[in-house]
Amino acid sequence: MFKLVCLDGCKLGARPIDQHIKGFEALGASVEVGQGKITASANDLIGTSIYMDMVSVGATINIMLASVLAKGTTIIDNAAKEPHIVDVANFLNTLGADVRGAGTDVIKINGVEKLSGNVTYSVVPDQIEAGTFMLAAVASRGDLVIKNCTTKHLECITAKIIEIGAHAEEIDGDTIHVWCDNRTSKANIKTSPYPGFPTDLQPQMGVVLSLSDGTSIINESIWESRFQYTDELNKMGAKITAQGKTAVFEGVDTLYGAPVYATDLRAGAALIIAGICAEGVTEIYNLEHIDRGYENIEEKFKNIGANIKRVSNEE
């Protein structure tokens, strides 16, 4: 028996776990929902074919984890393809699992009897953190060389950066040079699962488009409440109209410092970028959101020239 504990994440809209439950039940688990908890139990899990009704990173990972010690073969169809799906599969295989096809629409897991814990493994670089610094360089008209990233995972961001008139050049497989020496142009963007433009870089891109020429449109296909950050950018002088899953960005010449609130993790990163680009002082509150996804973010920005300081409320 095991219990699913749902931790609070960013409040971006509904977070259904029906695909997780569907996968566990297909493998033979009995799932009970009630009294604020979800309990799944099974004497044995039996491999089977599972079609995901929607692409879900979390559900794909959970079904992979449940399947590696299940009896027989499990096939996950319409699986998520994000780099961290591949990374989890590689890690499980290092432990002795037999997971094949990660990074494609179909993942096949042949159950094994046991896993070994005596391994050393390096986690894949975070493409969202790398993408955040790439977009910070563009928004601020800066010049950055970002090392220890996987450039292939950043191709959709690189393409958009080039499309709007900035520059992104791969130096090798783990280093990328991003620079911008002019005002960028408008763009239309639709977020989508990997390898499409990631929803987790949408707010950071929103800052870039707020400072670009012309009218840009972002269509958000993943989260229904991803545009909460636009109200905060508008406090800084941006001209953004957001309704439902669509936002229209009218480029402005300048952003201005203001007290703003990080409504979620990536919104917080976007506000840091906006504050770096803005005239005057920007105060960002609710830093606990940012700290969930970035380690020592103010130190990293300070090291590349940003005038940024973490202070207490009293200060």
Keywords:
315 residues, alpha+beta, 16 strands, elongated, disordered N terminus
What does this entry look like structurally?
The protein has a 4-stranded mixed sheet. Strands 11-12-14-13 form a 4-stranded mixed sheet, covered by helices on one side. The chain has a 3-stranded antiparallel sheet with strand order 1-3-2, with helices on one face. With 315 residues, the chain is of the alpha+beta class. The chain is built from 10 helices and 16 strands.
Q: Which strand order does the major sheet show?
A: 4-5-7-6
What is the number of E strands?
A: 16
The outline comes out as elongated
Order of helices and strands: EHEEEHEHEEHEHEEEHEHEEEHEHH
- Please compute the radius of gyration using only Cα atoms: 21 Å
**Average pLDDT level:** 93
Biggest beta-sheet profile: 4 strands, mixed
Uncertain segments are 1-7
**Tally of helical runs:** 10
Summarize the structure.
The chain is α+β, with helices and mostly antiparallel strands.
Layout of helices and strands:
Blueprint: E1 2-4, H1 18-26, E2 30-34, E3 37-41, E4 49-51, H2 57-67, E5 73-77, H3 83-94, E6 98-100, E7 106-110, H4 127-139, E8 143-147, H5 155-163, E9 167-172, E10 175-179, E11 188-190, H6 202-210, E12 215-219, H7 229-235, E13 239-243, E14 246-250, E15 259-261, H8 265-277, E16 283-285, H9 287-291, H10 297-303
Parallel strand pairs: 4-5, 11-12, 15-16
Antiparallel strand pairs: 1-3, 2-3, 5-7, 6-7, 8-10, 9-10, 12-14, 13-14
